[in-house]
Amino acid sequence: MIDYVSKTLSISSIMRLIVEGAIVLYEGDAVPLYNLAAEQPEAQGAFSTIGRALYDLRQYVLELEEAYREENQRQNDSGG
User: Count of CB atoms within 10 A of residue 8's CB?
Assistant: First the structure.
């Protein structure tokens, strides 16, 4: 079980770095493309969908990390 928990933390940390980097690129590089697509609602919709997915993914990763911290604290409090 310990191996699973440590691997989960490691992978969630990597996922967070990836999603944070993707959000930085999305907010920096994709916004001008979004503006260029002003007359193409399908393209703007796609950009919006991608952005929403990135922000949702970040939230899920944060929740996973928080669950890990809570479980780790619970184990420490119980002497496990």
Answer: 15
- Report the alpha-carbon distance of residue 78 to residue 55 in Å, rounded: 35
pLDDT band at 58 (very low <50, low <70, confident <90, very high): very high
Rounded CA separation 30/44 (Å) = 10
Give the Cα separation of 54 and 26 in Å (integer): 9
**Both tokens assigned to 47:** 């950009």
pTM for this structure?
A: 0.80
- Cα 34 to chain centroid distance, Å, stands at 21
End-to-end Cα spacing for the chain: 12
- Tokens found for residue 13: 């940390």
Cα(24)–Cα(76) distance, integer angstroms = 36
